[in-house]
Write a structure and sequence with these properties.
single chain, about 425 residues, mainly beta, Immunoglobulin-like, 3 domains, about 40% strand, elongated
Length: about 425
């Protein structure tokens, strides 16, 4: 019998390979560091704490960097729940957004606050306090509660192919806010290693660099942040010195609550790409804000977004010579859209009249790699209004001027004159309140 079993084992090994048990590391990664104690998101958070972060999140302009400053003002009551009330200032390009956020005390996730901070509140929740998905102050919550640094795993991320979130190593780390003794917590997803650096008894991580899960190709950044400044026991609001730029825009007569409702769908000059563009407000005014949504679409399929688009948004003269580059204003050589869906936000600096905007596409390539194809572009002519709603007289076609003269002389009837006025309104040269 024993000989028979050995023979069966030998045959099985020949057919299916070694009979050795699968390595435990193939199913479960082991972490843990030699550091006593536990940590959870929000640990040690208190009134008077001030934090300043440089950060980005993939769902906001595909990880465009902004600064978020936050001061813990004190408690606020929301029904039966007591939360932290934080004053916040966001510095996003040319914009400043000032408001409040409400943070939970079990997990410091923002659950309310100023409407204007909505997109930044979401970015903060999904990056700086993301580890609250595993580590909270509630010891009775299954799978959560404070996590020990010595634990072999803090849990498993939920996406397909996600792996264990592990305390990986102790590291002395220097960031703009100072030098800290940290524990690096990390995980792998889509073949890339994501890392978050936390400090014992400190409420939030001080640094992170993470990647989105992809099945193939180079994974783009999911979120990234670093602590710029931290102060304790700040008694007077450091946020009070700032005012939202929307207040200044409103005072100057700019629209501050608008949709990206004006749509343009065209192929590029050489028909290499297709662009679907929406911008707002409908009337662009010198000195006011403008927002653009650009969809880079395959020329073969309207439903297929292009990936890894290197591009710029330019203002050009009649000879296509660049007068302004949004990429240069943001301190980069080109703008980059890993998903093919880009959002731009800038101040209209062009003089009243007609501005020649150009979406210039260098090609499709990973960030930092020069595309191997020729550039292509789409030029868009947009009327620009002065702050009083007027455009230069030069915008009015000569035949309109002739019509006005002939109408004044009685050479043409009222209907012909009205047709000229209708043309001015249709082309955006004249605005009717």
């Amino acid at each position: 019998m024993k000989a028979t079993l050995l023979l069966i084992s030998a045959i099985t090994a020949l057919l299916f390979g070694s009979l050795a048990a699968p390595s435990a590391s193939a199913q479960f990664q082991s972490g843990g560091v030699d550091h006593e104690g536990t940590w959870y998101a929000g640990e040690g958070l208190k009134q008077g704490d001030f934090f300043s972060y440089s950060m980005c999140y993939v769902d906001y302009k595909e990880c465009t960097t902004f600064e978020l400053d936050m001061w813990i003002k004190g408690d606020i009551q929301d029904g039966s729940e007591t939360k932290w009330l934080a004053e916040v200032a966001v510095f996003d390009g040319n914009k400043i957004i000032v408001g409040e956020m409400e943070l939970g005390k079990v997990a410091p996730e923002p659950t309310g606050g100023s409407k204007e901070l909505g997109v930044y509140r979401g970015a903060f929740k999904s990056s700086v306090v993301w580890l609250s998905a595993f580590a909270t102050s509630n010891e009775d919550a299954y799978g959560k509660g404070p996590k020990a640094f010595s634990d072999i795993s803090w849990g498993k991320i939920g996406n397909i192919g996600g792996e264990q979130v592990l305390p990986m190593k102790i590291e002395t780390l220097t960031v703009p806010a100072g030098t800290w003794e940290t524990v690096q917590v990390g995980w792998k997803t889509g073949g890339a290693e994501s890392s978050v650096w936390i400090v014992d008894d400190f409420p939030f991580p001080i640094k992170a660099k993470t990647y989105t899960h992809v099945s193939e190709g180079i994974p783009p950044t999911e979120y990234e942040f670093v602590l710029l400044n931290y102060k304790e026991n700040v008694q007077e609001s450091p946020i009070a010195q700032y005012q939202s730029t929307s207040v200044d825009y409103a005072a100057a007569g700019c629209e501050t609550d608008f949709d990206k409702s004006t749509g343009i769908k065209k192929p590029t000059n050489n028909f290499d790409y297709q662009l679907n563009i929406f911008y707002g407000p409908e009337d662009l005014v010198q000195g006011c804000e403008s927002q653009w949504l650009i969809k880079f679409i395959s020329k073969y399929d309207d439903t297929e977004f292009l990936n890894q688009v290197q591009y710029d948004f330019l203002v050009v003269d009649d000879n296509l010579t660049p007068l302004r580059s949004i990429a240069q204003e943001e301190g980069v050589d080109f703008l980059y859209s890993p998903s093919g869906l880009a959002i731009l936000d800038f101040i209209v600096k062009e003089d009243p009249g007609t501005a020649n905007y150009v979406v210039w596409i260098y090609g499709l390539a990973p960030q930092g790699i020069v595309p191997s194809v020729a550039s292509d572009y789409l030029e868009i002519s947009v009327p620009i209004y002065a702050s009083d709603g007027t455009t230069p007289v030069e915008e009015i076609p000569s035949w309109i001027k002739n019509n006005a003269g002939w109408w004044a002389d009685g050479s043409i009837d009222d209907d012909s004159f009205v047709q000229g006025i209708q043309f001015l309104i249709k082309e955006g040269i004249m605005r009717v309140p």
